[in-house]
Amino acid sequence: MAATTSPADAPLVWGAGVGCRVLATLWLGQLVLLSPFAYGTDLAGLTAMEWLLRLWTLGVGLWIFARLGAWRVTADRDGVAVPRLFTVERLPWDEVGKVVARRDGCVHVGSRITGPFLPAPLARLLRRPDGARAMADHLTIMVRNPELRPTERAGARTRVRPYAVRAPLPLAVLAAAHLLAG
Predict the structure, then answer these.
(1) Coil/strand/helix, residue 53
(2) If DSSP codes are grouped into helix, strand and coil, which group holds residue 15?
(3) How far are the Cα atoms of 18, 45, 82, 83 from residue 89, in angstroms, in the given order?
(4) How far is residue 132's CA from residue 109's CA, in Å, rounded to a whole number?
(5) CA distance 76 to 52
(6) In this structure, what is the dihedral angle of CA atoms 65, 70, 74, 80, given to the nearest 10 degrees?
(7) Is the torsion defined by CA of 150, 74, 142, 7 positive or negative?
(8) CA–CA distance, 54 with 51 (Å, rounded to integer)
(9) What is the pLDDT of residues 7-17, one digit of tens each?
(10) How high is the mean pLDDT of the chain?
(11) 105 burial class (0-12, 13-18, 19+ CB within 10 angstroms)?
(12) Residue 106 in contact with residue 137, Cβ under 8 Å?
């Protein structure tokens, strides 16, 4: 495949597609409907443990929303940028190491996990391309062949952002749902 891959000038970007964004929207909808802060509940009467459990559930729900609908990986001249909850991990090319596509649609970039893409068995069933495998293969080729790496740095349009940057949107939706219901 290295013979058919041409060098890229601009940074290469992989991110959540339409399917992931639809799943994220559905996830947000169920989070609104099954909110850990149930409608009609007297929040003043909750114990500290109940508050902790509800905040934990909300945090996990928001993390899943961001992982589904807001992930993005960028490969530029300096390496690969992978989002984390509050930071962005920038792996220099010599530290990327191995890139492996998993059957569940996620991709190991070095020691980091990113994705999800459509899982490989489902992609075959639907006769869709295996995006995880394509990304893993492309990054592996760039790790092994430095002349095929992008020559530019990631700009504002291709920059990876932490997942927490996306938290205000679902929080606003949850707050609006509670204000309208109560």
Answers:
(1) helix
(2) strand
(3) 25, 41, 5, 6
(4) 11
(5) 40
(6) -20
(7) negative
(8) 5
(9) 778 899 999 88
(10) 85
(11) buried
(12) no
Dihedral sign computed on CA atoms, order 19, 21, 64, 14:
positive
| 126 burial via Cβ count (<10 Å: 0-12, 13-18, 19+) | exposed
Two tokens, residue 121: 């068995």
Number of residues in the chain: 182
Q: Is the pLDDT of residue 36 over 80?
A: no
- pTM of the predicted protein model: 0.80
**Measuring CA to CA, which residue among 83, 87, 70, 148 is closest to residue 109?**
83
CA dist 162 and 152 (Å) reads: 21
Q: Report whether 77 contacts 153 (CB < 8 A).
A: yes
